[in-house]
C-alpha cells in the first residue's frame, strides 16, 4: 500500500506535497482536522462542489477504519449549509467500474442548483422478484 500512497494525489494534498513535475494543484481547504480534509473540487460539476476525504489512505470504503469516518457526514452537512445548497447529492464511489477516478476514499458534496448543473444520473430500476428479494434480505441481514 505504501507505493499507492506515494502516488495518491489525495495523500499528496493531505500532506501538502504535490508532484513537482506538474503545475501546482491548488487546494482550497474548507475544513481540516486530524482525520479529515474537505476542499473544493477543481473540476466541479456545480458551484460549491466539494470533496470530503478521510486522511487514512484506503481505496474503498471498506478499507477505512470506522473511527476515520465519524466526521464525514457532519462535515458534509456543514458544507451543504455553508454553500446554501437546497438540492444536492452526496456521492461516494468504490472501484473504477463504479466511476471512482482517484484510488482514495472520498465523498462528493455536489449542489444541484438546476437541471444543467450538478450530478446527472439515471436510475435503471430492475423488475422485482419478491421471493428473491426476501432471500437476499435474509442473507444480508444475517451478516450485518
From TrEMBL:
It comes from the Eukaryota. Residues 9-119 form the HIT domain. Gene3D superfamilies: HIT-like. GO terms for molecular function: catalytic activity. GO terms for biological process: nucleotide metabolic process. The active site is at 106 (tele-amp-histidine intermediate). SUPFAM superfamilies: HIT-like. Coiled coil: none annotated. A motif (Histidine triad motif) lies at residues 104-108. This is HIT-like domain-containing protein. The lineage of its organism: Eukaryota, Fungi, Dikarya, Ascomycota, Pezizomycotina.
